[in-house]
Amino acid sequence: MKNLEGRTAVITGASRGLGAALAEHFAARGMRLALCSRRDPVLAPGDDVLAECVDVRDEKAVGEFALHVEERFGQIDLWINNAGVLEPIKPLRDLTLDEFRDHIDINLTGLFLCTRAYVQHLRRRGGEGVLINISSGAAWHGYAGWTAYCAGKAAVERLTECVQLEEEANGLRAHAVAPGVVDTDMQVQHRAVPTDVLRDPARSRAT
Question: Which of 69, 116, 136, 168 matches a 20 to 30 Å C-alpha distance to 158?
Answer without folding.
Answer: 69
